[in-house]
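pipeline: protein-struct stage 2 | run 1193 | Adenylate/guanylate cyclase
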Amino acid sequence: MKKTNTILKSMAVASVAGMALVGCGGEEKAGIAPEVYTDSLFAVMKADRTNYTKLIVKRLGPSGAASIKPAEHWKDLENGAPLPAQMFRAGAEEVGRLTDKFTYSLQSTWPINKQNAPRTEMEKAGLKYIEENPGQNFYGTEELGGQKYFTAVYPDVAVAEPCVTCHNDHKDSPRTDFKIGEVMGGVVIRVPM
């Protein structure tokens, strides 16, 4: 990750340079390092996703409850509820309607839904990095459509049995040997610079 480290060091230098202007009568710049910003966003996303999985889905399914049934085609069921990945995607879509300051998505190199496969070289590199380096995050910059972005990729780990069961048993899953605690994909957060 020399490239990523170089980018982050450059950002740190730029930040320090910005602060140096304060003592010379320049305009004070307040800000937050991009990795601190995306780390904070990810902490909220991870907490919500983990809690929904453990506190709601795990208690209801996959064996199910009579009142609410988490299911892939939940909209077709009178008592259906979205699966954790679908809940996460719904949140990302709602954030997209509320702000253009950042975007996020859940992706995997083993996606059940092909829409969740990585598309950019940065996404592919980020997912590969977090798969090969458990517990580590990936940071980098990329330019898409003439816009420069700070892009962070965080591991999405199987936190409960329903995660593993759903992916291992799904007919469209390209991988069927997931275990609790393994990286199943990644959360990609992108911030325009």
